[in-house]
Amino acid sequence: MHISHRVINYISILIINLISCLFFVKYATRLFHSYQIALILAILFSIIVILLLFKIDSVNIQKLKIDYKRQFFIIVSIITLAMLILVIATPDTSQVGRLPAINEWLANLLSGKFPYNTPANPSSFPMMFIIALPFYLIGELGFMEVLGFVIFAIIVFYYSITMKDIVMRLFLLLTLPMFYYEILVRSELFFNVVLVILAVLFTKKYLLQNKINLPFILTAILYGLLLSTRLIAGIVIAIFILYFFRSNYRQMIIFSAICILSFIATIVPFIIWDTQYFLHKGPFSVQSLYLPKIVILLAPLVIIFFVKYLRNIRDVFFYIGAVLFVLVAISFSLHCINYGFYESIFERSSYFDIGYFIFPIPFFILSINSKLKVN
Questions:
Q1: Which tens digits make up the pLDDT trace of 288-334?
Q2: Which of these, 170, 185, 181, lies nearest to 22 by C-alpha position?
Q3: Tell me: the pLDDT tens digits for 218-275?
Q4: pLDDT tens-digit map of 39-52
Q5: Cα–Cα–Cα angle for 246, 248, 253, rounded to 5 degrees
Q6: CA dist., res. 161 & res. 61, Å (int)
Q7: Which of 59, 113, 199, 236 could covalently link to 108 via disulfide, CB atoms 3.0 to 4.6 Å apart?
Q8: Nearest CA-CA partner of 172 in 370, 26, 353
Q9: Sign of the four-CA dihedral 226, 227, 229, 231
Q10: Helix, strand or coil for residue 17?
């Protein structure tokens, strides 16, 4: 049950543009005060992006006499500088709950109060806030997403085989309205996902599959710390571990056990601090609200069943992207069934944040290569 490279390209591009349209419609409606105009503009925007993507694919970049490495880092530096200026110049007036949640969690912790007991109801696990601490101390959490872009750009550069792949992948990211939304609202979702991708690629390149040594143990501990950001990271980690150790079940079990113990070690202090609040109003309860229990129970079985069909890291990224997209789409669809599509987007957005659709985006981008027209 293998999916061809061409199909992976088309599905990835289609889903990325579908998510892009969703964001475009929501925020263009606020600008033009017309849902219909926003929808038309979103469709036109997506068509233009797809046409430009195919145009890039048709260009023989290799014949251009350019110092690709130098030009890449110059362009990325300029874009990064522009993002920093955008963050600094844009007032911190976000109504998105994730920013207040980080601020309140860290303020409580630093003042000796139980950090999860705040009006913002923080939904992340402890390590996400610890990672955010340096940015909180310098007074600008928006720099996290900028750093996320820099790390992702470097990942794209070293992960991609051809210069055309690099151009296409960065082009897709930089034409996403939701990417700029993430920066403007000082979100940390993209940064969170990029850290997990970095760990996955590092593990694939440097960790030996059949040897239990110090790097093996340290990597498993690192995965446990990443798991202590969001449960969504656990899906990525689980799929990769099942793929990476598919021929070494003993190593898989030991690695998973160390990972889980590392995760537990990060939450035990908060369970001891306030057991009732952490278990009933902490990250477990908040994050589990987005999906029906039956979906939460069935998801691991579906993941395990399809992992056996993964052939390479590109398949892994596509599969992770597909799983994350389906889970977020299920949550969004259930909300639309209960309240209606229009109400879910414009009137009850506080009950479902479409920003969660950012989770599968980096994986779909890494699934695309420059051979759009061939199998």
A1: 777 777 887 888 888 888 888 888 999 999 999 999 999 999 988 88
A2: 181
A3: 999 999 999 999 988 999 999 999 999 988 889 999 999 999 999 999 999 999 999 9
A4: 888 899 899 998 98
A5: 95
A6: 13
A7: 113
A8: 370
A9: positive
A10: helix
Q: Which tokens in the block code for residue 181?
A: 């939304």
Long-range contacts of 78-85 (CB under 8 A, 24+ apart): 79/149, 79/153, 79/174, 80/146, 80/149, 80/150, 83/145, 83/146, 83/149, 83/183, 84/143, 84/146
And the tokens for 280? 């009933």
pLDDT for 54 beyond 80: yes
129-160: b (≥16 Cβ within 10 Å) or e = bbbbeebbeeeebbbbbbbbbbbbbebbbebb
Q: Residue 374: is its pLDDT beyond 70?
A: no
Contact assessment for residue 304 and residue 242, using Cβ atoms and an 8 Å cutoff:
yes
If one compares 84 and 16, the residue with the highest pLDDT of the two is 16
Tell me which residue of 248, 240, 196 sits closest to 222, measured CA to CA.
196
Q: Give the span between the Cα atoms of 362 and 375, in whole angstroms.
A: 22
Distance of alpha carbon 249 from alpha carbon 63, whole angstroms: 47
What whole-number distance in Å separates Cα of residue 22 and Cα of residue 3?
Answer: 26
What lies within 8 Å, CB to CB, of 322 at 6+ separation is 11, 360
pLDDT of residue 271: 94
Question: Looking at residue 24, what is its pLDDT?
Answer: 86
For residue 312, with 0-12 CB atoms within 10 Å meaning exposed, 13-18 middle and 19 or more buried, which class applies? exposed
What does 196-255 look like in DSSP terms, one character per residue?
HHHHHHHHHHH--TT--SHHHHHHHHHHHHHHTT-HHHHHHHHHHHHHHTTT-HHHHHHH
Q: How many residues does the chain have?
A: 375
The verdict on pTM exceeding 0.85 is yes
Long-range contacts from 97-102, C-beta under 8 angstroms, 24+ separation = 97/121, 97/350, 97/353, 98/185, 98/186, 98/187, 98/188, 98/189, 98/353, 98/355, 99/141, 99/185, 99/186, 99/187, 102/128, 102/129, 102/132, 102/136, 102/141, 102/188
